[in-house]
Write a structure and sequence with these properties.
alpha/beta, single chain, globular, Rossmann fold, about 190 residues, six-stranded parallel beta sheet, two-stranded antiparallel ribbon, about 40% helix
């Protein structure tokens, strides 16, 4: 299986800290899973212009192709101005409508305030559903107070990240078994 851990912003450090921790927990518990960390801050990406994702070149082609080749994607996003950041939305715009069909998606949100808790429900989950992702129902919400000295200090957050990873892996495995069983019925 291939998993992509996506840092959905080009600014700030909290989301990258949370997603690096997520990647570490994932690779420690499931070393057999091929994992890739995509930090949007590391790539020069153009604005989406409606072309096919395979027609992009350079970083845009690498990022979109990596996502399209993944079995599961764990999306990390900060909340800015009560919304997901533009670079993350831009990635979704670069991908085809059914880009996440057959893929499992889970979410980690970092925010400065508990008031932003429902942004993932109101903005990110509808986009992922529209793109046909199989969503892990619960997501991890990490607040400013959960970080200290560039690390996640709150053990409950680490526990919730571990649980999110387990749920993501389990859903990906079960979904793959279901697809394989359905495909086996066609006898070709």
């Amino acid at each position: 299986m291939k998993f992509t851990v996506l840092v959905g912003s080009q600014m700030g450090s909290k989301t990258k800290i949370a997603m690096t921790k997520t990647l570490d927990l994932l690779t420690d518990k499931y070393p057999e899973i091929d994992t890739t960390l995509l930090d949007l801050a590391d790539y020069k990406l153009p604005f989406s212009d409606g072309r096919n994702y395979l027609d992009y070149d350079g970083d845009a082609k690498y990022v979109t192709t990596t996502i399209m080749e993944s079995d599961a994607i764990i999306i990390g996003t900060p909340i800015y101005q009560a919304s997901i950041p533009a670079p993350l939305k831009n990635i979704f715009d670069m991908l085809p409508v059914h880009a996440l069909e057959g893929k499992v998606a889970s979410i980690v949100v970092t925010a400065g305030s508990a008031r932003h808790y429902l942004i993932a429900e109101q903005q990110l989950k509808p986009i992922l559903s529209y793109m046909k992702a199989q969503l892990v129902p619960n997501y991890v919400f990490v607040e400013e107070m959960d970080f200290k000295f560039k690390e996640i200090e709150n053990d409950d957050v680490v526990f919730r990240l571990e649980r999110l990873i387990e749920d993501t892996v389990l859903l990906a495995e079960v979904y793959k078994q279901m697809v394989d069983a359905r495909n086996a019925e066609y006898d070709f």
